[in-house]
Design brief:
Number of strands: 9
Structural class: alpha+beta
Strand content: 25-35%
Strand order of the largest sheet: 7-8-9
Largest sheet: 3 strands, mixed
CATH topology of the domain at 56-181: GMP Synthetase, Chain A, domain 3
Pfam families: AMP-binding_C (PF13193)
Protein name: acetate--CoA ligase
Shape: globular
CATH class of the domain at 56-181: Alpha Beta
Organism: Amaricoccus solimangrovi
CATH architecture of the domain at 56-181: 2-Layer Sandwich
CATH superfamily of the domain at 56-181: ANL, C-terminal domain
Oligomer: single chain
Radius of gyration: 18 Å
EC number: 6.2.1.1
InterPro entries: AMP-bd_C (IPR025110), AMP-bd_C_sf (IPR045851), ANL_N_sf (IPR042099)
């Protein structure tokens, strides 16, 4: 998790009219630390990577799991540069796991690699976390500040891409067109 010991100039100081709620929400989970609600990992070079909201949970066959767990397992594979995971309606499981995966430069998208990634996640987390659908993504829809727009990914995975909402803040809107054109869930 991303928890910070020190403050910074643009940090929120309170919730207007409800300071107690502010303290309870952001400072009670880890005493003495500001809890952002995000997960993160530190790479070998010392850089921190935001892995996603720790409260972004999907329910697969009655098992609740964080999407960040599956994403972390996918990006631990040496051929994967980036991954985003969302839930989508599944006839048997209730929610299935839909993964968007961007490979490292020079790697090829193959069916063999898709199967390898499913096995990789099974080994890292367990069978319940196996992605049902893996979509190769040349990039992920991000804001100019680098935040992945999971709302858009969720809509595409649900095959409900007609009303994606505001996409004006995306750094590269063409990524969305590619994801829609190559979506795996065409129900």
């Amino acid at each position: 998790v991303l928890a910070l010991a020190d403050s910074w100039p643009g940090q929120m100081r309170t919730i207007f009219g409800d300071h107690e709620r502010f303290v309870e929400t952001y400072f009670s989970q880890y005493k003495g630390y500001y809890f952002s609600g995000d997960g993160c990992r530190r790479d070998a070079d010392g850089y921190y990577w935001i892995t996603g909201r720790v409260d972004d949970v999907i329910n697969v066959s009655g098992h609740r799991m964080g999407t960040a767990e599956v994403e972390s397992a996918l990006v631990a594979h040496p051929k994967v540069a980036e991954a985003a995971v969302v839930g989508y309606p599944h006839a048997i499981k209730g929610q299935g796991i839909y993964a968007y995966v961007t490979l490292n430069e020079g790697e090829e998208y193959t069916e063999e690699l898709r199967k390898e990634l499913v096995q990789w996640v099974r080994k890292e987390i367990g069978p319940i976390a196996s992605p049902d659908l893996i979509q190769w993504a040349p990039g992920l829809p991000k804001t100019r500040s680098g935040k992945i727009m999971r709302r858009i990914l969720r809509k595409i995975a649900e095959n409900d891409y007609a009303a994606l909402g505001d996409t004006s803040t995306l750094a590269d809107p063409t990524v969305v067109e590619d994801l829609i054109d190559n979506r795996m869930n065409r129900a």
